[in-house]
Specification:
The complex is a heterodimer.
Chain A lengths: L1 E2 L5 H9 L10 E2 L2 E2 L5 H6 L2 E4 L11 H6 L14 H14 L15 H13 L5 E5 L7 H16 L3 E5 L3 H7 L2 E6 L2 E7 L5 H9 L21 E9 L4 E8 L3 E5 L6 H8 L6 E5 L2 E5 L2 H7 L1 E5 L2 H4 L7 H12 L8 H7 L16 H13 L5 E5 L7 H16 L3 E5 L3 H10 L3 E7 L2 E7 L5 H8 L4 H6 L1
Parallel strand pairs in A: 1-7, 4-5, 5-6, 11-16, 11-17, 14-15, 15-16
Antiparallel strand pairs in A: 2-3, 7-8, 9-10, 9-12, 12-13, 17-18
Helix pairs in contact in A: 12-14, 14-15
Chain B lengths: L1 H9 L3 H17 L8 H24 L7 H17 L4 H25 L4 H19 L4 E3 L2 H9 L5 H18 L2 H11 L1 H6 L4 H27 L1 E2 L7 H11 L11 H21 L6 H31 L3
Antiparallel strand pairs in B: 1-2
The chains are: A alpha/beta, B mainly alpha.
Chain lengths: 468, 323
């Protein structure tokens, strides 16, 4: 199932999973009416959902988390059969090739492993219908291949799988048929073999998107522009230093496998880690806190919207103005409506709670918040994680606009294709690939391609890559 | 051995335990030999009710709830017990009634919170007046007494150690049993994130009803112990206990945001608080300053516990190589 943000995919899957109630309509399972009022009832009927927001609880251990939905009891007693639960967990983790995770803590795990655990939690419930909501967007290629084999096995056993994803190549790769949703309506159901990617995108957006991004790239040589930022970032986790120079109007993509120090580098630059000394517009500065960084002209965009993006209990307007009002003490109001419209946010009123918006639209509000701070450097940590193609493109265009206005953007992405595509849009682009806390390779121009990024991500030296 | 030590240090109640031991040793220097006499037994006898109720309340807090009605409920249990004893009702019936009243009170809280979805703080604020009000209505002023045999037993069994330790022990065992069942895991799950727990098939409503009901039963036991200790009826006896109990839970490493901590922590927390109060009462002459000195020690204690747990956490994360 595919569709833009706010098209109703998550809502539909929540209704099937029992955590949202349907207003009208009818659902049939094996020809029988299927109407559930709670997740417990849905699970009873074999409909299991893995949620995009993850249902793992960091205060429980891995075994308790995986078995939470159906814990074992000892025979004729109320006590838990911990031994049996551990066996079941081990078995399912073995299937996922992650047996070593069993005595870890949830909060210590990188995102991709958390998503695999979420899948494990669904698998131990032995589903008849398995709903996978956006689980692969946080996974790496190796993980996705693994998930694919597991799903194939389930399919052989007759399990129905509803697979929701923004990554269209996965949809083509994994699914037999594709249902497209748009604004809460079904556009149609197609055989995936008879469908091209372009067709699918135009069904999703309702527009004719038969061509790629408009590329008006007047390539600039980096020598022509002045260096605005020179920094030496110390990564505590790896005990290594990274030297980084940023040129005005430059786009720097940061690639690499998860946990190679990308996030830590960006966070340190933004004052969230150890104090960092840097030269900004020719002046020596020391950044000790995010508020200092913001006042100097930095902006920070996180892909972890829930934790570092939105203020859940606050309105859209307050979320938009958060940095301008509270950190920069600018009292004059930007016109919220115009700014949000410009960023393509779909909403009813600016006084609504931010949580009334769909995930992609929430992220657009956060992007708009930072765009209007007048930042000179935007630090973006996987900013488009889990949002759909259209919203993604809108975000990229916003970055492009900032660069044209003279700002620079440093963007981490777990999706190599995104980096390649975005680099093509920008007048001046560079991709650095990180490995174990160091820059393994710097790519420019034609070298920015999937093969080169993939090769240097795994730590191969640059000479080998060139030969291949 | 080293593994065990690390586990002990990382146990959430550990800072409270360390604080308690530190304070016990400090007292030894301030008034040498105080542990030798019958101090410990009279200390336990006096504080058993608060310790017991703290353990019950901590379960509600772990489950992400809030309860400030224990004070009122304790008064009600006390009054009912004494009135029944005055009416020459057999002892066993009196004791059972204490637990029934506690359970009913807890269940009322649970119903309002889990079924009618009223905010826990508001619900228990209101019910504390309901319980306290009924207590005052039943007994206008302190009077009456309970069966003499049980009071005698409470103070003399095993040199006065037996009864308090028995009741505290029963409470702890109840908690440990729950922890080993589905309900135990569910309480932690609901406390951390109700929505995620619900999505994972946890019967959130049942869990909430259970934890308030259970905490009510424990409050019933606490009221029973309190009455046995004072031997008389007083409709206002426990009004001021509420905040002490909550504070004991917090010192014991239980977060008010839910999902973190262990009810054992409340045991250490409440013993620490009780010890402060006793020490201050005995060493500061001028009663005018009692609250002030108690407050200062409490603030220092809480800050100490937080600093200690922070050091433990940072060491833990470094050793695991995480961020």
């Amino acid at each position: 199932m595919v569709g833009g943000n706010g098209s109703g995919k998550s809502t539909l899957s929540k209704i099937l999973g029992g955590s949202a109630l349907q207003d009208s309509g009818e659902v049939l399972l094996d020809g029988q009416p299927y109407a559930v009022k709670s997740p417990i009832e849905a699970k009873h009927k074999g409909v299991i959902i893995t949620s995009q927001e993850l249902s793992l609880l960091p205060n429980l251990n891995i075994v308790e988390n995986v078995c939470l939905c159906n814990m074992d009891r000892k025979k004729r007693s109320a006590f838990l059969d911990y031994h049996k639960m551990e066996q079941r967990t081990r078995k399912v983790l073995k299937r996922l090739g992650k047996e070593h995770l069993i005595d870890k803590e949830i909060n210590m795990l990188p995102t991709n492993e958390q998503y695999l655990l979420e899948l494990a939690k669904a698998l131990v419930q032995i589903p008849r219908v398995l709903i996978i909501d956006e689980i692969t967007s946080a996974l790496y290629k190796g993980d996705v291949a693994l998930v694919k084999t597991i799903l194939e096995e389930l399919k052989q056993k007759g399990v129905v799988i509803l697979f929701i994803s923004h990554r269209l190549n996965e949809v083509f790769d994994l699914c037999d048929s594709v249902t497209v949703l748009r604004n809460g309506d079904t556009v149609g159901t197609f055989k995936s073999a008879e469908l091209s990617e372009m067709q699918l995108i135009s069904y999703m957006s309702g527009r004719d998107v038969t061509q790629e991004h408009v590329v008006d790239r007047s390539v600039i040589k980096s020598g022509d522009q002045k260096v605005i930022l020179e920094a030496k970032v110390h990564l505590e986790e790896f005990d290594k230093d990274i030297e980084l120079n940023v040129v005005q109007g430059e786009f720097i993509g940061v690639a690499g496998l998860d946990g190679q120090g990308q996030s830590e580098m960006l966070r340190t630059l933004f004052g969230m880690g150890q104090p960092v000394d840097l030269t900004f517009y020719g002046q020596q500065r020391r950044i000790t806190s995010p508020s200092k960084a913001i006042k100097m002209g930095f902006a920070f965009l996180s892909g972890n919207r829930e934790r570092e993006g939105i203020f859940k209990e606050r309105s859209i307007a307050e979320n938009f103005n958060a940095v301008n009002h509270l950190v920069l003490n600018r009292k004059q109001d930007e016109d919220v409506d115009t700014c949000l419209k410009k960023n393509g946010v779909k909403y009813h009123g600016t006084k609504d709670l931010i949580t009334s918006l769909s995930g992609g639209n929430q992220q657009k509000v956060v992007i708009a918040r930072w765009t209007y701070t007048g930042a000179r450097i935007l630090l973006a940590d996987d900013p488009t994680k889990g949002i759909d193609i259209q919203a993604r493109r809108d975000a990229h265009e916003t970055f492009c606009r900032m660069i044209q206005e003279g700002a620079s953007v440093i963007m981490i992405s777990s999706d190599d294709e995104e980096l390649v595509e975005t680099s093509k849009m920008m007048p001046l682009a560079r991709v650095i690939v990180m490995y174990e806390g160091q820059i393994a390779r710097t790519l420019i121009g034609e070298d920015i391609n999937l093969e080169a990024i993939a090769a240097s991500s795994s730590g191969q030296s640059s000479s080998e890559v060139k030969e291949s | 051995m080293k593994q065990r030590l690390i586990k002990l240090v990382q146990w959430t109640p550990f800072p409270a335990l360390a604080l308690l031991i530190f304070f016990l040793i400090l007292n030894q220097f301030l008034s040498p030999g105080y542990l030798k006499g019958n101090f410990m037994s009279s200390f336990l006898a006096a504080n058993a009710s608060v310790i017991i109720v703290s353990i019950g309340t901590s379960i509600v807090l772990i489950g992400g709830g809030m309860d400030i009605s224990m004070g009122g409920l304790l008064c009600l249990v006390n009054v009912v017990y004494v009135l029944l004893a005055e009416a020459k009702v057999p002892l066993a019936v009196c004791l059972i009634m204490c637990i029934v009243i506690g359970f009913a009170g807890g269940l009322l809280n649970g119903l309002c919170i889990a079924v009618f979805r009223v905010t826990p703080l508001l619900t228990t604020f209101a019910t504390s007046f309901v319980f306290g009000g009924i207590a005052l209505w039943l007994m206008k002023a302190p009077h009456g007494s309970i069966q003499r045999e049980i009071v005698k037993w409470y103070f003399s069994w095993l040199k006065g150690y037996g009864a308090p330790i028995l009741f505290i022990g029963i409470t702890i065992v109840l908690w440990l049993v729950i922890k080993k069942t589905k309900m135990g895991v569910w309480i932690y799950a609901v406390g951390k994130d109700e929505v995620k727990a619900y999505a994972s098939g946890v019967p959130v409503r049942t869990v909430k009803l259970f934890m308030y009901g259970f905490s009510g039963i424990i409050t019933g036991i606490g009221g029973m112990v309190l009455t046995t200790y004072i031997g008389a009826g007083d409709p206002l006896i426990a009004v001021s206990y509420t905040m002490t109990i909550i504070a004991a839970c917090v010192i014991g490493g239980i977060l008010l945001t839910g999902g973190v901590g262990d009810a054992i922590g409340a045991l250490f927390g409440s013993m620490f608080l009780g010890l402060i109060i006793t020490t201050v009462l005995s060493s500061v002459r001028d009663s005018f300053y009692h609250n002030f000195v108690q407050g200062i020690i409490m603030v220092m204690g809480v800050i100490g516990a937080i600093l200690l747990s922070r050091v433990i956490n940072s060491v833990k994360y470094k050793s695991l190589g995480g961020r």
